[in-house]
């Protein structure tokens, strides 16, 4: 049976999208494992199971691939954070998810943190990397701000300086995240979650501890 031109185009588009996603997932894995400076395009192509020609069709330079991989990884984390957990989902529950997603608490989040650390190192000396870092930090801070505003509007959180508090929560997560990435014996995941939650919850009038169900 002959495919119609529209179906054939759709099929090619689906294949291209699947190839691109395989490349981005492979890039995240390889960069996190060996560092961007050690990555060669063929490493990513081999991990993705595609030809180097296919890789270069989607990404012409390693820098473009790195930027796309960062956005891809960050976007997947954001989708998980913002997925509603039933009709009784609250701003407090979502803030708890943001805190958890801001730390290297799972293999996937450790991989994302490894990408962030690559970006931090480059941002200090490279204007393009600095632009990406600022852009992604703004997106992450916006998640927190939106959640804090939603909580205030719902009467769930006390009035407070949303912008300043979002920056504070973000920064505290970064600090504890570095310790967890190093596997420092001084800070456990549980200690980090409790400490961040204490800072995050106090100005909101939230007195409950970090929700234990979110720790799994």
UniProtKB/TrEMBL annotation:
One of its GO terms (molecular function) is transcription cis-regulatory region binding. Residues 40-59 bind DNA. Coiled coil: none annotated. It holds the Pfam family TetR_C_6. SUPFAM superfamilies: Homeodomain-like, Tetracyclin repressor-like, C-terminal domain. It comes from the Bacteria. Residues 17-77 form the HTH tetR-type domain. Keywords: DNA-binding, Repressor, Transcription, Transcription regulation. The keyword DNA-binding applies. The keyword Transcription regulation applies. This is TetR family transcriptional regulator. It comes from Nocardioides anomalus.
